[in-house]
Each structure stands twice: as structure tokens, then as C-alpha cells.
Amino acid sequence: MTVLETRRLALRLIETGDAPFILRLLNEPSFLRFIGDRGVRNLDDARAYIEKGPITSYERHGLGLWLVQLREGGTPIGMCGLLKRDNLDDIDIGFAYLPEYWGQGYGYEAAAAVMDHGRRVLGIPRIVAIVSPDNAGSIRLLEKIGLMFERNIDFHGEGRETSLFVPAPAPAPT
After folding, report:
1. How far apart are CA 25 and CA 155, in angstroms?
2. What is the pLDDT of residues 19-69, one digit of tens each?
3. Residue 142, φ and ψ in degrees, nearest 5
4. Where in the chain are the domains?
5. Which of 9, 46, 101, 158 could bridge to 19 as Cys pair (CB 3.0-4.6 Å)?
6. In the CATH scheme, what is the homologous superfamily, with its name and number, of domain 2-167?
7. Which residues contact 121 (CB under 8 A, 6 or more apart)?
8. How far apart are CA 99 and CA 33, in angstroms?
9. Which residues pair with 82 in a beta bridge?
């Protein structure tokens, strides 16, 4: 089911049939470095990840990570969406893309659409983000969609810092 579309992209619910793509994405070196190892090593693991992650999130919260695909041809290129995490007060935006699609504006196009959808359609007043402090590309994208660094937090309780980005204040009227 398509959740939203942009000029070049379609974002839809992730299904168990997307396991081959999810297996590849979650094992990209950039995903492992900046997001973490989800222990997905084969198609069965990928299907379990989809069922316990995105599908459960859709059922519980009415939102989650969505598959990002090119409108022309339907090629999956990543995932982007909104998450309700137990250890974070606010809804946050998350995303990951295959490296061959970086630098083409797809990340911004999807993230801007997701932020707009979250605010306008879902009525979420405040959307934040968490990011590895050394993930410069994702930090630039978060700033481009109107978020700013607030502070570092120990998100996983492992003594490893994660940067929390929050909505930037609106500019003062002139």
C-alpha cells in the first residue's frame, strides 16, 4: 500500500516480500556503521525483521519505516519513515538508502515528504531525529529538513553517544 508519493518516489508499507532488499540494505557497510547490526544474515532473518519491526509498528502506532522506491520502474532504494521508540519521548524520523542512490536528492525528497505527512496528515506536532555524531551526510539532511542539534544522549544505554536533533525554532518575523 502506497503511503505517499513525491515527484520521483513512492513510499509504501514494507512487506515480507521485500526481504531480499531489506537483507541487502541492513548489511550495507554504511548501515552497519551508522545505524547498527540488526543481526539480519539471511532471508528468514529479513522476514522476521520486517514482521517484528515495520509491520508491528504499523499495527501498534499507525506509522513506521516505509520502503522508498523509484516511481519509474519501482526499484527499491531505501527506507524512510516515522518511528515511536520506547526510549524516546517524541516520534522520530529515520532513513537509510543504498549508497548508489546517495547524492541525488532522494533522501531529502523522501524525508521532506515524511515530515510534511507526519505534521499535516498524522497531526504530529514535534518530530525529532537521532543520528550517529559522525554521520555527516545524515546530519546535513536533518538540518536541511529543519532539525538542529540539541544534545548528545546515551540512547542505547551502552555509553555510546547519539546526537538528538529537534525542530529548529522558527525565524523571528521581521
Report:
1. 23
2. 999 999 999 999 999 998 999 999 999 999 999 999 999 999 999 999 999
3. -60, -40
4. 2-167
5. 46
6. Gcn5-related N-acetyltransferase (GNAT) (3.40.630.30)
7. none
8. 13
9. 93
